[in-house]
Amino acid sequence: MDRAAQQSPTRPEETRPTLLRDPSFWGLIATQFLGAFNDNLFKQLVLLVSVKMALVNRAENLQGIAMFAFASPFVLLSGVCGILADRHSKQRIIVLSKVLEIVAMGLGVAAFLSGSLTVLMIVLALMGAQSAFFGPAKYGILPELFRPEDLPRANGLMLMTTFISIILGVAIAGQLMTWLAGDLWLASLACVITAVIGTLTAIPIRKTPVAHPGLAITLGSWFISPETRNVVRQQRTLLSVLIVTSVFWCVGGVYQQGVNDLGILQLKIDEAATGLLGACAAIGIALGCVTAGKLSQGRFEARLVRAGLWGMLLSLIVLALPGPLQGQTLLGVYGAGMMLVVLGASAGLFAVPLTVYLQAMAPADQKGQIIGVMNFCNWIGIVLSGILHLMANGILTGMNWPPNLVFLVGTLLLIPVVIWYHPQSQALGMDAEAATFPTEEL
Fold it and tell me: The pTM is what?
């Protein structure tokens, strides 16, 4: 037998272009960047409008309601959106979701013109619904477009650019609050233009085959389908990752609202400076994501997860401490900014390996649904962050305690994770996937 005959057939992933030479990768990066920018710009505008109501009476801080409005559609729709991502081409789902983003941003213009906070909350919920539709396809398409060994780097770069867009969205929202004052509808008009550009960048993304044609949408699938429940129940490591990421996003929701409280209510800085303070955390996340992508090298690195977990825990404690500086804080404005960079970097180290694990280790015909379940769990965490912020704000206001103590809510959420979650490093890729899941479920 000659050498050619002994060679194994070429696997599909071996014919794919390298990551940085793949036009689909750059199209997906641009589409995600512009979508995340719009989400965070509009959401931060609504959060700032909500927190400014508390300048007279801290009990009127409505950030928690705004976060609840934005996150609730993810809880209600992520399951069925995951099924849609598997029964249709994920590329088509991405393009359609961007068209819906144009519609949502157009309604945002009308909401700001109306001057009604209630209407703004409704549009924020519609934005959440659009993002829930986008999410499973956006993350589920990665293993369909790219080689397994490229997934850590792809996730690192994608999350890095996502959080760069968050930096810009949060920072620019603060600037626009200062510059435009009563004409915030102009900011939403810019979001419409951004959504149009994002739709155009989605078109070149390479079409992918349908993962599970004809997959039924049942009453149970609006949350988690029976098939997916069985997979998660049988694979305890998947279940633990889903729980941990849910806690992570709950903490993220709490500290995002906490930064606005810290800047406007305690440090007494304006919206533009508060936006820059919030952007510090996103800068750290971008750095942490890139670092995690480079250090993973095709593996799930548990050491990165543990380092990120401890970094977040300690950073939140320091941010909550009282002291002699501005606003009776330990760090003041500049120290808080630096500590938020550390907090963000720790979050990036923590998030990337867990996201890669779910993508690489889910069964091939259920990747979209598993990503949908991840979104479902994560957004339960974010919904809870809105509720927790409302509760914490009520307690802190009633006790006349400083707003930065809300960061301790995050530490209380992370302590059980430190005690309970002890992941083990392992290789990723097709071989690892086949070893993890029974063959009859592939």
Answer: 0.77
Angstrom distance (rounded) from CA 273 to CA 26: 32
Helix (H, G, I), strand (E, B) or coil at 326: helix
Domain total of the chain: 1
Does position 71 have pLDDT exceeding 80, yes or no? yes
- Give the pLDDT band of residue 152 (cuts 50, 70, 90): confident
- Which residues does 354 contact at the CB level (< 8 Å), separation at least 6? 241, 244, 245, 248, 305
Q: Residue 433's pLDDT is what?
A: 33
Does residue 429 register a pLDDT over 70? Answer: no
CATH number at residue 39: 1.20.1250.20
Q: What percent of the chain has pLDDT over 70?
A: 88
Dump the DSSP string for 10-41. Answer: PPGGGGSPPGGG-HHHHHHHHHHHHHHHHHHH
User: Could you give the CA distance from residue 359 to residue 428 in angstroms, rounded to a whole number?
Assistant: 10
Q: For residues 261-290, give the mean pLDDT.
A: 89
First to last CA, the chain: 32
**Quick check: helix, strand or coil at residue 300?**
strand
Helix H or strand E encompassing 324: strand 322-325
Cα separation, 87 vs 201, whole angstroms: 23
Q: Which range marks the domain in which residue 351 is found?
A: 23-204+224-436
User: Helices marked H in 117-150 — which ranges?
Assistant: 117-140, 142-145
Residue 220 or residue 359, greater confidence:
359
- The CA distance from 141 to 367, in Å, is 9
Q: Is the pLDDT of residue 343 over 50?
A: yes
A 10 A CB-CB count for 206 gives 16
